[in-house]
Fold:
Amino acid sequence: MINYFLRIFTLPGVRDEITRYARVFMGEASRYSAGFKGEAVETREAFAVLTKYIRKEKISRAEKKQFKNQMVDILRGTGVVVPFMLIPLPFIGTLLLIIVDHLLLAMNIQILPASFYPEKKKDLLTAKGIDEDLEKAIAKEK
Structure:
């Protein structure tokens, strides 16, 4: 049985397809890690605005809007990410989150906070965007 699977997974077409999926997954994982880093920076800035408010200092309209948007992002992230991370099997929750996010993004529904969707690559998760990214990566390797 093991020899059968080894022969299947070492076929050139199957191996290339697995490599392609692995590259797509690595791109998605880097987008999520960048999203978490961006959320951390934005939350720190919102905390600074909250500190100013508590000290009864003057807060501009832009700071109020930034704080409001960040609180919405925090609530959105908590409501979406936490239930997936409560799945007891390691890595499965992350994989499910990526799949659900990918499916909903294909329908133009963004369920994660704004920092998870880079503005310069709006079609990152669409089939067209993935194919373009893979073609660029393959071209760089050659």
